[in-house]
Amino acid sequence: MTDILCLHSYWRSSAAYRVRIGLNLKGLPYEIAPVHLVRDGGEQHAPAFAEINPQELVPVLQHGHRLLRQSLSILEYLDEMWPEPPLLPSTARDRQRVRALAQVVACDVHPLNNLRVMQYFEHDWGVPQPEREVWTRHWMTVGLQAFEALLQHHPSTGAYCDGHAPSIADCCLIPQVYNARRFGVDMAPYPTIRAIEEQCLSLPAFDAARPERQPDAPAT
């Protein structure tokens, strides 16, 4: 690889967190270009960043002259460009299951709790913070209940969401669990998820991707 990988990221963005995990699992060196999603109304709305991503969202992965958007498609791009270690299983049936698990988070849970949704509730509808947090916990709980049910007693579930190697499902699950804990969701009802979280976070690739370890994370 001769082209430098540069990830436009925000330390607490769960979508960017997914891609950081994937890059780390692949052992790919990359630079972080921080995009602060709150400061000055959100740097993602600046014209310069809107040229990079008209959706005004992170992450964006720059690979040479290519600008790659949407976390799941970026993860699959990484898997196609650098096949080892794989982020998708070898069979069509198992790949479908892993993609479905990833999409439970990326398509059904996360969009309902995205920062821009919360900001719309606050600024346009005047929804108070306690009510916004109830909304957030409700949809996270609904998603985690479904995810746990899809994992429990399934023959493909192992130390990770699928077998004994991390996949894009784990790349999506761990940031969602981080968000759930941040908003005070009770994780006790999800023993399978908690076991997978513990296993994932024991790996350097996941540990290094944690929000608090990012260069743009605020000092504690």
Short description:
This protein has 220 residues and is of the alpha+beta class. The chain has helices spanning 14-26, 47-52, 71-81, 92-109, 115-123, 129-151, 168-182, 191-201, 204-209; strands spanning 5-9, 30-34, 60-63, 66-69. The longest helix is centred in the middle third of the chain and has 23 residues, at 129-151.
Description:
The protein has 2 domains: 7-85, Glutaredoxin (3-Layer(aba) Sandwich), CATH 3.40.30; 92-206, Up-down Bundle (Glutathione S-transferase Yfyf (Class Pi), Chain A, domain 2). The protein is of the alpha+beta class. It has a 4-stranded mixed sheet, with helices on one face. Helix 1 runs parallel beside helix 3 (71-81) and helix 4 (92-109) packs antiparallel against helix 6 (129-151). The chain is 51% helix and 8% strand. The longest helix has 23 residues, at 129-151. The chain has helices at residues 14-26, 47-52, 71-81, 92-109, 115-123, 129-151, 168-182, 191-201, 204-209; strands at residues 5-9, 30-34, 60-63, 66-69.
